[in-house]
Amino acid sequence: MRLKLEITGLVQGVGFRPFIYALAKELDLTGYVRNNRTGVRVEVEGGKEVLDTFLLRIEQDKPEISKIYSLQHSFLEEQGFETFVIRESIGQGAGRTLILPDIALCDKCASDISDPENRRFQYPFTNCTDCGPRFTIIEKTPYDRQNTSMKEFALCNDCQKEYDTPGNRRFHAQPNACQECGPHVSLHEINGTLICTGEEAIEKTVSQIQQGSVVAVKGMGGYHLLCDATKEETVAALRARKSREEKPLAVMFPDLNSARNETSINALEERALISVEKPIVIVQKSGSSILAEAVSPGNNTVGVFLPYTPLHHILLDKLKAPVVATSANITDDPIASDEQDAFTRLAAIADFILAHNREIVRRCDDSVVRIAAGRQMPVRRSRGFAPVPISLPFRLRKPVLALGPYMSSTITVALDDKAFLSQHIGDLDSPLALEFYEDTINDLLGLLDVTPEVVIADLHPGYYSTKFGEKKYGDVLLKVQHHFAHILSCMAENGLPEDAEVIGFAFDGTGYGLDKTIWGSEVLIASYRGFKRALHLRPYRLPGGEVAVKEPCRTALSLLYDTFGDKAKNIDFTSFSENEKLLLLEIMKKNINCPLTTSMGRLFDAVSSLTGLNHKISYHAQAAIALEQAAARSDDKGSYPFVISNKMIYQLPIIDRIANERENNVPPEVIARRFHNTISNMVVEAAEIIREETDISYVALSGGVFQNVILLEDTFRKLTERNFRPLIHQLVPPNDGGISLGQAVFSHFAQV
Known about the structure:
CATH topology of the domain at 105-271 and 302-369: DHBP synthase
Largest sheet: 12 strands, mixed
Shape: globular
Number of helices: 22
Strand content: 15-25%
Oligomer: single chain
Radius of gyration: 26 Å
């Protein structure tokens, strides 16, 4: 099957378009390349394996004088190009200064800091026009040194000469600096007392990490907490201090080879690891690993990334071992980004602080991606990607501000045919997070010099983002249903035209429904202008409301009660005592604090509990992740029955069969795999029913549940085999981090 690979990038330098042309011709691909006012655009068609090769070779073989600052890509439907051409450049629309993302250390600068004969040997702020901080140091446009946090550092004669010399790779590199004139590092006691500076500070930091200390290290967009990833006791101590009981921690490896030794990395995962964005990539652990079990307890995956700043390169080169490199915060708070912040908020977490005197203008957490169905899927879109815009398949009438949701929050500022997503903000449930949220809105609007003429928020009346919109933008505020926004984001990033219709599956944990209940398994017949709720799970109860989110065993008992009635009290698959079970059954009978939901996310949680994997959770989606991990250990092809009737999907037959299999000691991993198979079958059967009625063949898969790689890949494959045209996320996260894009898109059509 032929596909179209669509690439948009921020690229400078001569020879790039001819290089793309020659590479496409060599691989017998069709399509075009052209420059536009925001960079370069490539659309190329061929078989998936050849397109993978094309993508990998762009960064491997690009002309030496060309510079890639960002490269977003997605696999779409074949359009039918007959040959490959270089198209004429275009420059439609009003010009607008684009802010570059932060760019990982380039190979030449890495060579500079490794060469004892180079004047930048071991200098932790080395950069050039090919690499270095951009988004996190700029205060206002235009991007000149005096408008960045580097304005405090006057260039020495040598650096000034580089800066002024055309042809030098540091010509007009705004963060240019060296040991003589630039920022420096300093090591501090946790109370702020200075220990030492410069090279000595780095050496002592390395020594402390080797001895088992936790060191807060100031990076590009905030502080990391670093510790030896091979020391069980050290990682466990970090978890306890950070209040992060079980959620996996990211690991930074010195280089690609060391990462290969500890994990199983395929070609596309390797491409993501070494890409200019340098995100955290979720990969499979290897059979035997030196990593502490506490890094990702009970998981067969781990988040891996490579050094992306010169400071990280220097530290990891000296350590020659992997380190935990996690955001410096108490779990759920924003990442610490300045010294005052670090000395106060990290006092109970870190043993030492390695600071530097270059101000971080805006926080920017690390990005996270997974490879699924042969595509790169963002889990968190932030450093390296923000604020690179998403191209829209139409032009907006008015500039819009989209306020995002509550969890995994981002905001979007959109105008013309570009949507600028903010960096990752996080869950809006602490005072610091709310402050960061409002700062991000003001900052992005100011940076882009945009006054929104329409503002859009989630329909949920309790979300802080919605309340903020009502208070500040009431006169121009629109609202859109959560799951519809999920589907709109998927449609827009896949370039669907204005008149397109899709069958949208929005599967997640929570979303405020039009009937004021908790939705989450929504099958929508959707266009950009509106939607019809075609199908959803049979509503079930959440005993205790929000408590059931933290205790999946409650949801499991609720589904057992729906399935077996009073006999549920005799089923012992949950963690309750007899008295607890009877009390919960009683409150369900009397419907006391038992809100109804159609959540697919909570169904995954309940099955995780029923199989004995997770009765209670310490972080979001933990139970569902455990279920996916268990399913990955089985290749069973079985599935469970379900019924689709009267606009509902009846899940009780699934619960009945799982209870029977648990009674007969079927292994949890087999049950988990059969459940995943069932949900993918459910999507396909529902899609076929709706296609029969509507003749729609596009199927959009969105919502946090579709971060599950097993579910996504099985569903994608089965839909493709049945001649559907599945759409998945490749540019923005399927979780709530992509909601603001969908909101921004709806604002355009809501005015028609």
